[in-house]
Each structure stands twice: as C-alpha cells, then as structure tokens.
C-alpha cells in the first residue's frame, strides 16, 4: 500500500509543478495540523510547488512573490469530505451523475472504479476550491450492490488523475437492506461468500459466484491490506460486527457516517479505525441512528479515535459545509486542533496521502489557505487558496453569477447577459 | 438609559410600519373557519429580568449593556439599568446576546419526522396535482424529536408546510415550538394558515411520471389557473369576496353564530379544496410558493394578479437575487437557503449571497429558512454564512440587520409580526439568550423563552424536553441534546 501511494504521488508532483509560482507568505498564524501545532507570526516559503521553509523572518529569495498575511490564519488546504465532486453536476439529472453502478445480472462489482469518470473541469471543483478545499475522497455510491465499488483521492487543482491508493466502498445496515435480501444478517452472509471467492475457496466457475474474475482480483487486493475499505455504517451493533469481521479478515477499514460510533470508541481506538463522521447528525433519522449525538466527535477523539469529517447529505455541491461540521464538533467538546486535523491531517493519513497533503511542513505539497479568521467558524471565509504553490483564481461560476447581478444593469441599459465578468 | 428608552419607544413605531403584511383578520370568512382550533396555553412562567446583555431587537437595533424584562408572558420593558420589581428572577446576562425567538417559515417537522420511516411519511398528498383540501396540521406527529432539537437552536415558532409534489399542496400551519401531545396544543393562536404552492420541477416530475398532467411547466401554470378559476367561481357563488364588515371574533370563538359567511351561502355544497383557495384569494390564508427560478417567480406574480391574491413569500428562490428589486416592489419576501444549490436543474444558479441581495433593496424582505431537520437547529449559522459571503463580496451586514432574516421578516411572512419576531414592549416574550454573538459556529442558545416560559435551558436538564419516542432508548449519549 505504501509503495503504491508513493508511486502515484510521484506522478502528481510532476503534474502539479507545471505553472507553480514561488511565494513567501509572511507573518501568518500558521496552523500546521502537524506536530508543530500553531506557529504565531510565522513565514512559509514555497518553491517549485513545495513548502521549502517554515519559520520566522525568512528571507525572500530573488524572484519570489511576497504575501503579507497580517497575522491571519494559514492552514493546509482542507479535505472536502467523501463526495462526488466531478462525478455529478446536477444530482437530479441522471446523465450527469456517474457515481454508482446498477447492473442487474451481476450486481457485486468491486472492480467498478468511479475515478475513471472524474471530470476535473466540473464546475463543482472551483465552487469547492474557493472555499479552501484542496482534496476530496471520491466515493462509489450504492446503486444495486452494497459493495459499491472503488473511489480515490483527487486534488482539486484541475489535475485529472487520483492520487494515493484506491478505497473500496461498502454500505452496511438499514440503508443497504434492500440490496442484501432485506436483512443485515444477509450482508455478512454475502460478504463472507465474496471473501471466500476472492480467497479462492470458491471455484471461479461456480454457478453461485457473486463476483466476476476482475471483482475477485480487486477484492483480494483489499483483503491483502492494499487500500482501505470505507464502510458506511451507523448502528453500534453493526459497527461491532464490522470490527470483528475486519479483525478476522485482517483488512484495513474506515467508518463513514458512524452516528453511533461513540458507543464503541475504545474498540475503534484499539483497532485504529478512523471515523469520517457527519458532526451535525444528532437526530434519530432512522433506527440505525437512535444514538446520534453532537458529542460524537468529542467522545471518539477523547478515546483516541482519529476523527475526520464528511457529510451525510449533499456532500458534493455543498462540500464547503464540511467546515461547519468541524466547527460544530468543536462547539460540542472537540479540541480545536482536532477539529482542524479532521479536515486536514487525519483524512490525508487515513487515505494514504499524508506524506504529501494535510499538514504544513517542509517538503509537503504547498496546498495552503489563508483565511479571513478562524477557519472553523462559518463567519469567516477563505481569502486565498494555493494548490501546488499556485495561487488559485478565487472565482467560480457562482462568483461570476454573483458579480453579474451585483453590478446590475450595465451601461446603456443592456440586460445582465451583456456582463461577461472580468 | 434615556437614549435606550427613546430608542425602544421608536422601535414600536418602526415595527408597526415594517409590518407590511398585516396579519389576516381572524376568520373573516367561513373559508378560514377553524374546526381544529388552537388549545395552546403558555407554559408556567415567572417574571424574569435578563440583565446587561447585547440585545438585537429583531427590527434593526443593537442595544449594548441592555436589560430585558419579561412579565406575564410578554416583553414588559427593554432598557439599561432597569429596576427589578419584587418577585422577579434576575439573570445576569453579561457577555451574552439576546435575540427574539427564531422563526422558521419552512419546516416539515412532524410531517416528515425522525425517524424517517415510511409510516411517518405524511408530508405530500401525492394523489392529485391540486390538494388544497389537505391541511399539514392533520399530519403533524408532535413527538418528532426534531422539535426539541430545533428548540435547542432557539426556534420558538415555525410553519409546517406540506411538501412540494403538488401544484397546490394544501394548508400549512404555524406552531409554537412547545412540547405537546396534540398539534392543537402547539397551534399559534390566531396565526393565519399558509397555502403551499409549488413551481417547477417537482409537480411536473411527480405527475408527468404518472402520465398525467402536469408534465411540463406550461402544464403547471395551466393547473394553477384551472384551480383558481374554480375558486373564483366558488367565491362568487358564496357571496363574493370578504363580507363588507367582517364580524369581530376571537380565534377561539366558534363560527356557528349565524353571522359568518355561511349565513349568506347560496346553498352550494362546501368544497374543502375551494375553501382554501377562496381563503387565499380573500387574503385570510397567506400564499407561500416553492419556486426556484427567477422567470417562474415572475410568472407566479402575474398569476397572483390574475386571480387577485397576494404572495407572502417565495420559498427556496435559489434565483431570487436575479429579481430582488421586483420582489421588493411587490412586497414579497424571499425565504431562502444560505447555500443549497445544484441538487436539481432549477437549483443550478445558486449563489451564497442570495439572501444578502434580496435583503439589499429598499423594502427587501429576506428570510433564512431551513426545510431541514438539521438546518432548523442552526439558522443562526446559516445567516452567519450569508454575512461572511456578503462581506467577501464587499457588502457589510451588521448583526442587528441580519437577525431580522430569522425573526421579524419571518414573522411578517407568517402574518404574526404583531405578536412575535421582535423584542418590543407588549410583544410575546419569545426570547433567546445566546452565550455569545449568535453569528458564530461556536454560539449556543443557552436559554429559550416562549411566552415568557423558560422552556429550554442548556445548563438545566430539567428544562430540556425529550420526546416520548426517545424515552427508554438505550443509546442516548452522555450529555446529548436529545
């Protein structure tokens, strides 16, 4: 898994350096999201798309642009949660949505890989990016199968290919009931059968096979410890079964959702299972979420679980809302530093890209955001985003629409359609 | 002290003037008779003096170091250095912020409750494109745990609407956010009903999908017009518009005293559907239209003129910013999200400054709404996002202005601005005490008062309601809100 990640990020480095600008950001409150914590009045030097130096009073090498942060917060570019950015343009219009496979005859397709459908020119990319989001985990959603397929991490800098290892998505619990014989017990029955197939205990030509040969090979890779299996699950009882299954099969899992994960916090910490949670979930939206609470993040973190954030609903278009999740988790007991880590270091490490992304440190990709104030508070906004050292245009289709109608009727009384933006 | 009192006195005038939508006359015609009347009674309260807070009145004023005195369920006085009358509980609110109770004009709590099981799916009567005969209140499950969660977010009043599957979805009801075993015990006394209508994609998708009309936007408009043609005819046969001198009658008095509209009835059979539409034309029922696109909103404005009704608010209005001046001219509020967009085609042009741009024209009426069991818990944060994005676009909105989006403007669109939505002497004591500036992600509502009763207190578990549904559930978190 590690070597696969390094190989992929090496390729990324080449792509990201194209057009990189060198910049010295002076006098920032640098939230490293790493071991150094927060550094007041600190400079960050970026050259060749990479962070070269972090310290006070750095000298600007010749030809390096200087930005005065005036003491404002500087963070790593944020993780946008588990989304379909670049996989869906308009959720309600099926031809624009590519994140699930629905094949009737052989529904279980672990080999399905949504990253092949990723569109780096999607207008959701700049919409998310201008809010300080620098990377996201693309998810395969359940269509006709509760083993949904694979996704991967993309960097929202316009690059076309995912980085790091792939992740396999599985959905358990009530949400997958219709896809698994209408019983969550059947989910384990079917998963066990798939594992048996992938491990070669069921002949490839068995008439009972659930998987294609390609699916068998892909699942075998995850069973062999390559890549993480991200399991969408909420109910504590299901999480308990999942932890047993993961220990028995020796697979690396992460939990997404996890409304009742706090009930198994010590076990999750012991098993080193990170949780991607929706920190706003406090209603018993269904019977798998009876124990949902705003204290979920705080309880998990206090027990030693690595907590990252993702949204249960509208995660793609409103990916920017992930900041509000972290802020509310902090308002309900999570330490501020852990709130920031859940948007930066934790997801990067959990997804195998922590060697490049998620922290501010020498040698890391210069994916940075300068904020108007506390980045976890919705009353503040991103002022400037750099990805791979490049200052990203702080524009999106939404800011273009805003500016068109802010200006109102143009000269000569022409309609707004004559206003084309900067 | 003096200038504060003067400011407060001035507020009453502003409040009255700002009340553009007069509350509907109580049951002026039989179309607005209420056979399911409110049984709401304020919960027990004691006189309370909240001392030395930053007070946002809801109608444009910020008072620093101010006191709020609540007595007999109403706001008695606002000022600094108020005397504490005997028997008054004094609360030190130093460092706290006080706002009017938060109002959500678009909620489906109770009709799409938690848990969201099929048995609870009571928000859309998707059996005909015009179901003006159905009333959302008859679907409300008062045990929805979402009510208590909303209360912890400062929600004191909310309008429950039918969903948007239909051209005309039915009547919405305005509730006090108090724990109760019946919806009647939550019903806001004297509040007019809302009529829920819907433009655009939902009706055409739902009925087009069944192979019936409407399947297009032109089919939608034909459907509204057919319904209002029927209602106009019904109104004519049933004595025309409003009676010349509507009888003065309190909400709790029955209508069967021989003086109502029905006394002059031409003898035609009552039609529940047409009752509602006729009530809307008469202005007794306030029209709330789910409508995303700017062009469709202008169509609906013309429809309203064609049949002589007024639109209280467009809901969702993702493109409202494109017609902000028009909405202000017509006196129509925009009840909007801070940032939702893109989930369907008619939501594609969403921008995060929508509310700020609708707020901008003179007489603009911007409202933050939720349409969500999550969003209703933190409308203050939704407003904060708007402030932040407006600031980035060069528009500075102070908190004393933004709070109106959640309070007085919302009350205006529901026809209850004479009772709630602002902190003014004589208004209902619907009050939220926040631990800090409410326009921060870290702000918590510490105390919530409805009619002067402390019905939520973050630091007092005995003042935290819990739905029957949550009782005995084994999974409650230590210190969880529900």
UniProtKB/TrEMBL annotation, chain A:
This is Amidohydrolase. Keywords: Hydrolase. Pfam families: Amidohydro_3 (PF07969). PANTHER family: ALPHA-D-RIBOSE 1-METHYLPHOSPHONATE 5-TRIPHOSPHATE DIPHOSPHATASE. Coiled coil: none annotated. Signal peptide: none annotated. One of its GO terms (molecular function) is hydrolase activity, acting on carbon-nitrogen (but not peptide) bonds. Residues 331-390 form the Amidohydrolase domain. The keyword Protease does not apply. It comes from Pseudoxanthomonas suwonensis. It comes from the Bacteria.
From TrEMBL, chain B:
Keywords: Hydrolase, Signal. Residues 238-267, 461-482 are annotated as: Disordered. Residues 389-456 form the Amidohydrolase domain. Pfam families: Amidohydro_3 (PF07969). The lineage of its organism: Bacteria, Pseudomonadati, Pseudomonadota, Gammaproteobacteria, Lysobacterales. Coiled coil: none annotated. It comes from the Bacteria. GO terms for molecular function: hydrolase activity, acting on carbon-nitrogen (but not peptide) bonds, in cyclic amides. Residues 256-267 have a biased composition (Basic and acidic residues). This is Amidohydrolase. Residues 1-27 form the signal peptide. One of its GO terms (cellular component) is cytosol.
């Amino acid at each position: 898994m590690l070597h696969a990640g390094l190989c992929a990020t090496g390729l990324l480095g080449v792509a990201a350096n194209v057009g990189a600008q060198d910049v010295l950001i002076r006098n920032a409150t640098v939230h490293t999201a790493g071991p150094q914590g927060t550094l007041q009045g600190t400079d960050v030097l970026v050259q060749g798309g990479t962070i070269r130096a972090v310290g006070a009073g750095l000298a600007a090498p010749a030809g390096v642009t200087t930005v005065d942060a005036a003491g404002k917060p500087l963070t790593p570019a944020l993780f946008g949660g588990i989304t379909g950015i670049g996989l869906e343009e308009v959720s309600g219009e099926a031809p624009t949505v590519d994140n699930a496979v629905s094949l009737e005859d052989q529904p279980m397709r672990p080999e399905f890989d949504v990253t092949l459908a990723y569109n780096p020119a999607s207008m959701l990319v700049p919409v998310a990016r201008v809010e300080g989001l620098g990377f996201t985990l693309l998810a395969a959603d359940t269509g006709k199968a509760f083993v949904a397929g694979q996704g991967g991490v993309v960097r929202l800098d316009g690059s076309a290919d995912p980085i790091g290892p792939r992740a396999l998505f599985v959905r358990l619990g009530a949400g997958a009931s219709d896809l698994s014989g209408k019983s969550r017990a059947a989910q384990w029955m079917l998963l066990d059968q798939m594992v048996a197939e992938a491990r070669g205990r069921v002949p490839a030509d068995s008439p009972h096979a659930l998987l294609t040969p390609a699916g068998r090979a892909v699942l075998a890779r995850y069973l062999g410890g390559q890549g993480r299996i991200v399991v969408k699950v909420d109910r504590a009882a299901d999480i308990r079964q999942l932890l047993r299954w993961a220990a028995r099969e020796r697979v690396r899992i992460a939990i997404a959702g996890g409304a009742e994960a706090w009930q198994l916090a010590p076990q999750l910490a012991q098993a080193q299972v990170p949780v991607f949670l929706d920190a706003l979930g406090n209603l018993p939206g269904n019977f798998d979420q009876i124990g949902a609470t705003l204290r979920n993040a705080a309880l998990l973190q206090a027990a030693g679980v690595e907590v990252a954030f993702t949204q249960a609903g509208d995660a793609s278009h409103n990916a920017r809302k992930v900041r509000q999740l972290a802020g509310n988790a902090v308002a309900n007991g999570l330490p501020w530093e852990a709130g920031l880590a859940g948007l930066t270091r934790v997801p990067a490490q959990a997804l195998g890209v922590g060697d490049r992304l998620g922290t501010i440190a020498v040698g890391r990709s210069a994916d940075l955001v300068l904020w108007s104030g506390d980045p976890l508070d919705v009353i503040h906004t991103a002022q400037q985003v750099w990805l791979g050292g490049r200052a990203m245009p702080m524009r999106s289709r939404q800011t273009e629409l805003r500016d068109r109608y802010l200006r109102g009727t143009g000269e000569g009384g022409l309609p707004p359609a004559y206003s084309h933006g900067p | 002290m003096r200038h504060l009192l003067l400011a407060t006195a001035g507020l009453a005038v502003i409040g009255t003037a700002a009340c553009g939508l007069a509350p509907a006359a109580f049951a002026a015609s039989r179309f607005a008779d209420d056979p399911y009347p409110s049984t709401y009674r304020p919960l027990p309260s004691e006189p309370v003096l909240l001392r030395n807070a930053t007070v946002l009145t809801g109608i444009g004023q910020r008072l620093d170091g101010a006191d709020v005195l609540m007595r007999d369920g109403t706001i008695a006085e606002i000022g600094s250095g108020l005397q504490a009358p005997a028997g008054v509980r004094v609360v030190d609110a130093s460092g706290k912020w006080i706002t009017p109770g938060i109002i959500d004009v678009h909620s489906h709590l109770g009709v799409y409750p938690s848990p969201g099981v099929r048995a609870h799916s009571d928000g859309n009567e998707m059996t005909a494109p015009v179901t003006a005969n159905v009333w959302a209140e008859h679907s409300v499950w008062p045990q929805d745990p979402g009510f208590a969660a909303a209360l912890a977010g400062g929600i004191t009043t909310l309008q429950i609407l039918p969903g948007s599957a239909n051209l005309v979805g039915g009547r919405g009801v305005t509730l006090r956010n108090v724990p109760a075993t019946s919806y009647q015990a939550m019903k806001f006394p004297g509040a007019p009903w809302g009529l829920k209508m819907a433009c655009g994609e939902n009706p055409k998708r739902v009925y087009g999908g069944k192979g019936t009309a409407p399947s297009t936007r032109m089919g939608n408009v034909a459907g509204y017009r057919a319904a209002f043609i029927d209602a106009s005819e019904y109104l004519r046969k049933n004595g025309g518009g409003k009676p010349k001198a509507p009888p003065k009658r309190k909400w709790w008095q029955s209508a069967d005293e021989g003086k109502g509209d029905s006394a002059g009835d031409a003898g035609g059979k009552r039609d529940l559907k047409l009752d509602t539409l006729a009530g809307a034309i008469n202005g007794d029922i306030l029209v709330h239209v789910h409508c995303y696109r700017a062009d469709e909103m202008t169509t609906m404005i013309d429809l309203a003129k064609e049949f002589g009704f007024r639109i209280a608010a467009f809901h969702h209005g993702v493109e409202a910013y494109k017609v902000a001046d028009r909405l202000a001219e017509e006196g129509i509020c925009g009840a909007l999200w801070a940032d939702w967009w893109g989930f369907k085609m008619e939501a594609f042009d969403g921008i995060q400054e929508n509310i700020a741009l609708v707020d901008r024209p003179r007489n603009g009426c911007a409202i933050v709404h939720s349409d969500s069991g999550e969003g209703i818990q933190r409308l203050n944060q939704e407003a904060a996002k708007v402030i932040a994005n407006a600031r980035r676009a060069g528009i500075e909105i102070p908190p004393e202005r933004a709070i109106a989006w959640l309070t007085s403007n919302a009350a205006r669109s529901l026809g209850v601005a004479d009772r709630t939505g602002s902190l003014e002497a004589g208004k209902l004591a619907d009050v939220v005490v926040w631990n800090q500036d409410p326009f921060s992600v870290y702000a918590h509502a510490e105390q919530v008062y409805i009619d002067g009763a402390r019905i939520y207190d973050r630091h007092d578990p005995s003042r935290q309601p819990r739905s029957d549904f949550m009782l005995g559930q084994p999974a409650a978190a230590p210190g969880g809100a529900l």
